[in-house]
Structures are given as C-alpha cells and as structure tokens.
C-alpha cells in the first residue's frame, strides 16, 4: 500500500472544495460533469482522511 501524506490530501481536498464553490457561484462557467466528478473525488478524499 502506498504511503499517503495527510497534508497533501488536505490540500487536494481544499482545492476541490474551492473549485466547487467557484463553479456554483458562477453558473455556466463549469460543466455539471466536472462538478459531479469533483463531488465524488471529495467524498473519496474524506474517506481516505478518516482512515489515516
């Protein structure tokens, strides 16, 4: 299993949350597909962070 850095995961999580917030603030700027992928990725990262 790969060793993961907790700080790196928090950084990625925060970046995704920022992008989601900005896409919701500016409708039409980003596609709904990207939004759904980001939401799924955020959930995965949160699960990973719980297990550390």
Question: How would you briefly describe this protein structure?
Answer:
With 52 residues, this protein is mainly alpha-helical. The chain has helices at residues 6-25, 32-51.
Attribute tags:
52 residues; single chain
- DSSP helical segment count: 2
Uncertain stretches: none
Q: In percent, how much strand structure appears in the residues?
A: under 5%
Q: Profile the largest sheet.
A: none
Label the overall shape.
elongated
The separation of the N and C termini measures 13 Å
Task: Please provide a written account of the structure.
There is one protein chain. With 52 residues, the protein is an all-alpha fold. 77% of the residues lie in helices and 0% in strands. The protein has helices spanning 6-25, 32-51. Helix 1 (6-25) runs antiparallel to helix 2 (32-51). The two termini are 13 Å apart. The mean pLDDT is 89.
